[in-house]
Fold these 2 entries.
Entry 1:
Amino acid sequence: MHLTAVELFDWRSYRHARFEFPVPEGKRNVILIRAPNEHGKTSFFEAVTLGLYGRDGLPLLPRAKVVAGDGATDKLALTYSQFLEGTLHRRAIAQGRQSCGVSLEFVDDDGEPIELKRRWHFTPE
């Protein structure tokens, strides 16, 4: 299975963006993303991570830092709701948007398309 496209809807600074990726060939099976600082690489990573894993992807996100907990366990500095509100919700509402989303498109080993869509809806409250 391989990733063929990522589409973002009202995701942080991305109003609407679609990124298409080539079919892997032989040893050419790595996708590199590069851009100057402050051009959305982390936002893109967060969209893909939350699109794939939802709440379970939170520990993988740089903005949801892990802090030392009591005893031998570490805890996330933010809950899933706090992350969504601080990172996505506040900005969306300020810009008059009510939701954001990500669509991930794949092709499986049999050549069949698979699409995974996630949408988050916000209210001013």
Entry 2:
Amino acid sequence: MSITVRPLTPDFVAEISGVDLAQPLGTIDRDAIEDAINRYAVVVFHGQNLNDDQQLAFARHFGPIATSAQKARHQDIKHRIASPEVADISNLDGDGNILQPGSRRRLDWLANRLWHTDASFRAVPGALSMLYAHVVPDEGGETEFADLRAAYDALPDKTKAAIESLVAEHSIWHSRGQLAVTQYTPQELASLPPVPQRLVRRHPGSGRKTLYIASHASHILGMPIADGRLLLMDLIEHATKPPFVHAHTWRQGDLVIWDNRCTMHRARPFDTTKVRDLRRVTTRDIASTLEQAA
């Protein structure tokens, strides 16, 4: 049975049905899913039943898997999920208990509520993120997505010309520092050094130009830091206007794929005394954005 793709808007976010992602994925369905990602940037599968190994097996159809940065920045904390390829996007500690308000991992995890794109702070950044919902609260905890292709298209030509060749420095420590989360060891800081990334890139699957911005973007290289940060703030404000944003309300069994090369996302608040257990697998891009066609 072939899959069905139902767009939620003409060019951004689609729901895909007619496929059990726990089973081996045929070539025709794999290619159809990739085509949908290239066109809609965010795709949603409802009613899936996946364990970590099945989620990883599905993700490997779309590229090499990136290791999670969680263990690098929390080297002295017990982790709930053993696999270095599965990121624990939950409010649970290593023993499966709800995180205490002042715990290091909870404070670090709060940065997910900033607009960001996964792993832009790595020299070879993230490509596709695949987030699966094991347990979700009755309300709250939505994920919002911003279409950076449409946001780029809507910029004035003068602005497009001004930002075309700019490069931003990205650092996970910059995004955490915005929430005053700075208690990291020298070893942790050294494990994820800042990296340069293009501010404007061309999406390889669609050929469309797109902004590449995030809370990890600290400043613009070659520009006074204050001016560069104001430019980044203006671009994020522009890119997250309502016409460019879609909010996903989670159900247990949802798998959502988004393309980090042309979207930003952020988590929304929920009652953190309730369990929220989602797990993410992210594929790696082919190279630094500086090494790819602009």
